[in-house]
Task: structure prediction
Amino acid sequence: MPERMSEGSPNEEESVDRSGPEDEATKKPPGSRLWDRVRSSLIKPKLDPQTLQNKDWQRTVIAMNGVEVKLSMKFTSREFSLKRMPSRKQSGVFGVKINIVTKRERSKVPLIVRQCVEEIERRGMEEVGIYRVSGVATDIQALKAAFDSNNKDVSLMMREMDVNAIAGTLKLYFRELPEPLFTDELYPNFAGGIGLSDSLAKESCMLNLLLSLPETNLVTFLFILDHLKRVAENESVNKMSLHNLATVFGPTLLRPSEKDSKTPTSSQPISMNDSWSLEVMAQVQVLLYFLQLDRIPIPDSKRQSFLFSTEV
Result:
């Protein structure tokens, strides 16, 4: 059975077990102890960007309690792993510009976004860790293929799948957009505006930037924003606060353009990694800022076009 991985914070993944050797053997399950050995013997010492850059796969065997686990690992730079590739299938939805999809569908919000949100709100609002817990990869890929082929039975497929796979499909859609929802052009301004110390200046800057987004991007974001706020209303059950949701969705909706993306180099590994961490923090803070606003004022000039766009 495929394992379901949890999208936790680095602190959660790197937590230290402070029990003694005897307690460790009794408290930790075999799988956890095996992972600890893999991490200590392979990942930490061998996955160093300075030594693995442009090198071949690293292979090793971890033996434990008569079981041998063969592992193959290779370092991939952040620039390559986050590179957004345009879809070759323009009739699909994944990897296709959002305005092309909505124009084809004659909608304001892409159908995939509306259907995934509808299903999550139908039966996933009390799911513990919704959007943080990953679904089974094969289910997500099956949904991706169904949406790309305009499968009319996709709604039936979703009703039979684990709700975490649907949440994962929605996040994957936004990650694979050729340009993020907050656009390459405006991203640096959002990242700068969130750092303003004057609250009034920050509010003016952030709202003006938001309303500068292309109409489809703006309407889709407002649609997602309202949905995430409704998810957080069930925090006592699903354990997903506004901050947790911003941590998951911030780097998904906001990304720097490829030319501005900071990739650590061998000469400046620490400072560049620190810069990347600050970048992610800014992405989280931008989304959290909008999530915490009671309402987003829409000028009358834009309000008319939104009247029917929210009824999706």
In short: The first strand starts at residue 58 and ends at 64. The two ends are 36 Å apart (CA to CA).
